[in-house]
Each structure stands twice: as structure tokens, then as C-alpha cells.
Task: inverse folding
């Protein structure tokens, strides 16, 4: 889940499914829960992905292993046309990081470079604290700028991630020497959260890193009381070149309208810290398990259901863009993404052309989850220009940003039953859409 | 709060104050809440201690600043006989720390050296996982031992801290190369928790560090599935020599029995990470604020109330031992300590000779807090040999071990009203004990 998710992702109206008339599906929905059986293959697979493959930025050897592993699973489960789609991705290496307070006391503070940051052997400067992009001005000349944006709830992520993305260039334009970000989080135990930044062309590129909410608030309190801390930031980051990663694609070809596609997607890459358990290992195994269950149903759907595990959502959405370039002209009747964690499913988050809602609405209702207008998903977002309805699986968001992009995004944070419920929801919706009457 | 706290500290029976007959105090208890006024001086002082002085191991310049600051406050508040008692303390410097997984994947893991650990330029070895001291045997020869003790609730801390203290020597006796500990915590966001270890004489001294619960559980899962991780631990720790720190002492001399002492204590030192907000900045300002309120009451108590802010609880209880050596022969009728955090007061934790309970019982009841047998406090524990009743202020323990000994033990974790409630509780109990009828 990346920066483009906004307030709409986790708020606005929610319609209880119970309010809708239950529209009959032309083909009865199989009992996917019964097909899943007593084991929890989604969780077993997530365990392997987290514990044995681990964090997997798109440019890493771990990502290549993850892609091979996922393709092998798709084949084992009987999917067809299993293939790896090449995706060119940028390379970025985190290296070591150190943040020292030099004044008024000497301390080392937990820190994580922001993804894409340039390195620095060491930059020392006093701190200027701001809370938004708009507050940046000539006062940051020669300073380390701390964006102390007060994220406290999931809905704040959209505004916060804009600061993470644009804050370095904004500050650099006014002569700042480095950028620090109060971590975008809903809970902290001195936990820094990474995430991607974007350098604007033509602006100086300054090093950028996230610090814990505790330390950001401490520095802000010092400044409020008239004490200006002096910090030293050392980052071993290296940006350079491109490499090849791969989207992993597999299908259950449709019986009657094989050229019409229902896409089930998630991103297989993760940040290079933690295990990428909720972001987006959970989504990846949701998709694998939903496809397995659809296949197990033993009845071909009318339309083709296509699973796509995308490369490099975290550092440029390159897999999503490559997919749209190569396959965007095909007839996608819907694209469904799971990239909001492995918590208990709560709703569908819908980004669809209004004229398609009359068709989509009763179909969503058959899945027993509520729906709301909102974000579909980063990887499927390039399909929006083809007027494809984008549908995000939106689980309970309460704790997602406790773990997101940190060393704490690990297997132990995932409840196996909640994870499986997500896979079942995807299977049901994919089934209903793949067998729905003609799009009106 | 240090390793000697055991299960009894946070469990066993609790008597609701409402069950007791309200024993009349010979001198009415002043309205300390009214005396405190609308400001929250305890919180203001804790803010200064955390934000401006910061973490303060007894051997650090920050501790010396904290001691001067506390003595100055005692004088400002009108305490008498304010003095610094010299305490010899060992010196230990954390230096840098790095833990790398080399196999089956390459990762850097969050780590904190255990207090007192020897350094190492780098030790590499496969991991052997155990869950208790008893499981250590010849199988750890040449390995890095991970004690994956499954702490999940405050009551587990006693057993866990014995492992932290004794685990290195136990493992070294069987030829282990280093010791790792699953952090002693009730919550984790990839958060390592430090704390003191003890090397047994005559055993090899091996480096020792704490890792996050997430990583410990991951390593344990790998081992369970037949994969033996290889780790590399680098610690820049340095142990060496002694230095002088000071207990900070101030008094309100008693009117009628000045030679009888009610001690109010906390430890002023903290670990060298975070801000030492709950452990034990909260206790320190509890004591300062209680003394200020007792003084503001304008009526001298019958007995002397003595505040003692102890040096070096965390790394050897040297302040408590020095106090007992120099003043233990004086007549202490009770010693009260606050070293279980700044949360909402819940109970008194009583470690007293049974024959004194008939006297103590109705006095405790007047404070409107329940009481239970348990731990009094580390710093006052050396007074137990003089049969002094030891009384610990026991706040709500739910979140104490979320923050304890980590970078997350910071001011933002302290609720100002809960903090002040602790100071009021101490003032009331000190008043009641100082004015109570003769000890029977």
C-alpha cells in the first residue's frame, strides 16, 4: 500500500450489505470455505513467504525467489498460462543509517532512510520543525527540516504520505540540508517507518529519513521551549541503475467469454525491513488462495479470472504500469486488489465509473461485505484510464499503520483466520464477477 | 525497576480499601489535591527530566545534572538537610551494536546490548534456541544461545529477568559463544529491551544482547522447521572502572519524633535509552511532588519524612546499598518506593514483617488504595534486614513492560493526571505513617 491512498481509503460512507436486495447470482457461489478445508494454506504460504523468503524489494534476490515461488504455486494449483512478465525496476540500497543528536545532548536516535533517498557521509545542522509542506519557507535555509506531521489515525496517511513524497524537494528548494519525517504510524514503540520519496527534477536532492514519533515529538518540544537541537544524519543509501523483476501471472480461462478478464491482484514486493507480512504478503496469499479455491470449485467461470502478483509497488508501481502497458487494451471487466493488510475483511473500496455502478452494485451485495467509494489499489490504478472498475479489499484498518513499512510488519501480526477470511472474500467476488450477466 | 521483582509484584490477592474499617488518623490528612493547585508540577518536572536531561545512567554526566537539578528542587521546595550522598558506581558504555543474520538470509536485526555485557568485534555462530535456563546443556557448545522465553504479561518478568541476569554465564559454562534474549516485553513493534546481566565469577564472559520478540520468534520458527540460522553479533560495549554518583536526600524533620523516619524513595538513574520516563522518572517526580505537598501542608509531621532519590538502581542498586550502609541503623518506621511507573495508582505492594501488619493495616486503609503482599522496591530492599516495612506504589501494570528499558520509555507515554495521582497517593501515605501512633 503506497502513498496514493487517501482519506477516502478508510472513511466516507459504508453501506451495510444487509441494506441491499440480495441479487441472485446466475451461477450459485460455491462453498469456498468448505473447499478450503481444515488446513489454512493461506497462512502456511504466508509463513513461508515471510520466514523463508523475507523482505523482498523488487530489485533484490529475495524478490526473484518470491516470484519463482509464486509461479510454482500457481502451477501446482492448476492455473493456466502461468508466466513471468518482465518489469524494469530501479535499484536502491538502504545501507547503514545513523542519526545523532549533538546538541543539547548527545544521543543516537532510531532512524530509517526513506526509500530512494540519496546517501550522505554526514550532514550536520540545526533543526527547523514544520507540520506541513505549506510551512516550509526561507526559514529552513541551511537546516535539517523535521516534518512533525501529527499522524494519529489511518485516515491521516494520505496527507502524511504526500509530505513523505514531496517534503525533501520542497525543503531543498529553500536551501534545507536534509529532511526528517515523523513516522507515519498509528502506534509507536520507538519504531521508524520507511516509505518512498520522490525527488522533483531540477531541485537539489537532499538526504531524507524517518524518525520515531517519540523522538520527533521530543525535538518539537525542545524547539517549542526555545532550544534548537543540532543533528547529524549519516546515510549509506545508494541509488543506481535498473534491473529486471517480474510480475507473476496465472489464469483460470473463462468458459464462455475467455477474452473478458476479472483481475485479482496484489503486490509481491515489500519494503526491505520486517517481513512484508501485512504489506503485502497477506494480499499475495489472498490472491493465491482465492485462485486455488476457484480452481477447486471444478466449474470453469464464464470469464477468465487472472491473478497478477505485481512487482515493485513500493518503489514506483512499475509492475502495475508494465501490466497496463502490455495488457491494458484487453477487456478487463473489473480489477480487484488486496493491499490493505491481512486483517478481518470489512468492506470493498470502490473506484469505478459511475455508469457501471448499476451493474456492479447488486453483484457486490452477494459477497456479504459492505462497500464504499474509495481507493481500489496502487497496482491496478493504471487501469483506471481504461474505465475498469477498481475494487480494493478493505479489511479492518485499525492496526495496519502500526506495522506498515517497519521491522514490525512480521508474521506474528497476522491472525490466520482473518487472513483466510480475506481469501474467501476475494474468491467470492471474483466468482460473482466472472459469472455475472453482460456488463451494461 | 530491576530484575528482583517477581511474580508477587503484580499478582496475588488484592484487598479493596472499601472492605476495611476506615481507621481515624490522629492528625487529619491535608487536602493534598487542593494544595497541588491547578498546575501539574509533577508533569512539568518530569518533562524537564526527560526532555532536557534525558537518559541518565548513574555513571553519566546526565546523571550528575539530574542529581544537581533534584537537589535544587528540594531546596526550592523548602526541604531541609538537602545533601548528596556519594555512591561508588561501575562504569559501562554501550557503544554501537549490530546483529546480522548471515544464513539462511542476510538481514540486520534490531538489537540492544544487555547492560554490563562485554564487547565483541564480532562473533559468528549458529543459533541454539532454548526457553529456560534449565534447557541449557552441552548442545550450546560453540553456538549463539537464544533464550526465547515467551514473556506475554507483566507477571512473567520475574522469571524472564532471571534468565536475562544468569543466562550468559549459564550458557558460557557449556561453551556458548554469545547470548541473545527475546526481549522482556508485553508489546513489541520490533522493539528491543535492555536490562542488566550478571557474570558469575570464574565463568567465561560472553557478549549478550536483547533482540525483538518478532525476530526471536522468527528464529525459533526457523529452527523448528529444521533451518539453523547463523548470526553475527558485534558489540562496542566497554566495562571499566568506577566513578562517583550521588543519592539525593532531603527532609521534612519531624516535630515530635524526629529520629523516626518515613522514607519516600525512587531511583533517579535510568537506562541509557529512551528518556527513563516511567522507569523511574515518574517515581522521582512522585517523590519530589509528594514532599512539596507535605511541606505546603504547613504542619510539621510527628516523624521525619525523608526523600531519597537513589543512584544506580539499574546497574547494581549501589545507591540503595550505600544508603542502607550509612543510614540503615537509624529508626525507619517504613520505606515507601515508587518504581513501577507513572500509571494510575492501583495498590500498595507490601513487604513487611508480619508482626507489624496489625499496626500498618489500618493506616494503609486511610489512603483509599488497596494493598497486597508483594515487592516493596529495589532501592529500599537493603533495609529489609532491619525489619523495615517496605511499601511499593503499584500503579496499573498493564503497559509498564511495553516501554520498560527501551527507546520508547518517553514522556509521551505518561498521562499527566495519572502521574499526579501517584504523587498524591505517596503524600497521603507518608503523612499517615509520619503521624501514626507509636509502632506496636
Result:
Amino acid at each position: 500500500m503506497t502513498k496514493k491512498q487517501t482519506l477516502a481509503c478508510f472513511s466516507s460512507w459504508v453501506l451495510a450489505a444487509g441494506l441491499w436486495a440480495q441479487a441472485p447470482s446466475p451461477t450459485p457461489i460455491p462453498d469456498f470455505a468448505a473447499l478450503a478445508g481444515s488446513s489454512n494454506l493461506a497462512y502456511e504460504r504466508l509463513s513461508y513467504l515471510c520466514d523463508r523468503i523475507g523482505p523482498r524489494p523488487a530489485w533484490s534476490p529475495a524478490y526473484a525467489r518470491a516470484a519463482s515461488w509464486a509461479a510454482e504455486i500457481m502451477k501446482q494449483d492448476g492455473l493456466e498460462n502461468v508466466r513471468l512478465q518482465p518489469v524494469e525496476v530501479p535499484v536502491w540500497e538502504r545501507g547503514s543509517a545513523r542519526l545523532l543528536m549533538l546538541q543539547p545532548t548527545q544521543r543516537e536516535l532510531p532512524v530509517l532512510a526513506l526509500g530512494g533517498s540519496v546517501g550522505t557521509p554526514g550532514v550536520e545542522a540545526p533543526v527547523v520543525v514544520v507540520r506541513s509542506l505549506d510551512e516550509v519557507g526561507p526559514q529552513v535555509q541551511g537546516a535539517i527540516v523535521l516534518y512533525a506531521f501529527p499522524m494519529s489515525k489511518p485516515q491521516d496517511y494520505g496527507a502524511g504520505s504526500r509530505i513523505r513524497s514531496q517534503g525533501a524537494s520542497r525543503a531543498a528548494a529553500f536551501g534545507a540540508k536534509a529532511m526528517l519525517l515523523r513516522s507515519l504510524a498509528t502506534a509507536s514503540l520507538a519504531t521508524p517507518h520507511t516509505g518512498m520519496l520522490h525527488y522533483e527534477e531540477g531541485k537539489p536532492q537532499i538526504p531524507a529519513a524517518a524518525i520515531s514519533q517519540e523522538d520527533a515529538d521530543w525535538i518539537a518540544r525542545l524547539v517549542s521551549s526555545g532550544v534548537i537541537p543540532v543533528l547529524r544524519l549519516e546515510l549509506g543509501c545508494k541509488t543506481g541503475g535498473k534491473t529486471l523483476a517480474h510480475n507473476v501471472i496465472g489464469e483460470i480461462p473463462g468458459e464462455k467469454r475467455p477474452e473478458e478478464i476479472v483481475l485479482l491482484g496484489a503486490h509481491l514486493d515489500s519494503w526491505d525491513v520486517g517481513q512484508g507480512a501485512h504489506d503485502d504478503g497477506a494480499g499475495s496469499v489472498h490472491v493465491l488462495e482465492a485462485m486455488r479455491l476457484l480452481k477447486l470449485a471444478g466449474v470453469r467461470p464464464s470469464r477468465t479470472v487472472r491473478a497478477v502478483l505485481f512487482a515493485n509497488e513500493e518503489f514506483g508501481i512499475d509492475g502495475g504500469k508494465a501490466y497496463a502497458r502490455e495488457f491494458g487494451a484487453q477487456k478487463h471487466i473489473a480489477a480487484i486488489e488486496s493491499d490493505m493488510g491481512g486483517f478481518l475483511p470489512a468492506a470493498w473500496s470502490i473506484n469505478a465509473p459511475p455508469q457501471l455502478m448499476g451493474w456492479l452494485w447488486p453483484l457486490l451485495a452477494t459477497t456479504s461485505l459492505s462497500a464504499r467509494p474509495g481507493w481500489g489499489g496502487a497496482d491496478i490504478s493504471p487501469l483506471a484510464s481504461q474505465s475498469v472498475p477498481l475494487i480494493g479489499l478493505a479489511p479492518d484498518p485499525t492496526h495496519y499503520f502500526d506495522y506498515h513499512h517497519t521491522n514490525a510488519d512480521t508474521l506474528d501480526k497476522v491472525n490466520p483466520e482473518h487472513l483466510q477470511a480475506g481469501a474467501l472474500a476475494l474468491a467470492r467476488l471474483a466468482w460473482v464477477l466472472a459469472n455475472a450477466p453482460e456488463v451494461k
Remarks:
- Confidence is low (pLDDT under 50) at residues 3-23 of chain B.
- The interface with chain A takes residues 47, 50-55, 62, 104-105, 107, 109-110, 187-191, 212-214, 217-218, 221-222, 225, 227, 274-275, 402-403, 406-408, 410-412 of chain B (CB under 8 Å).
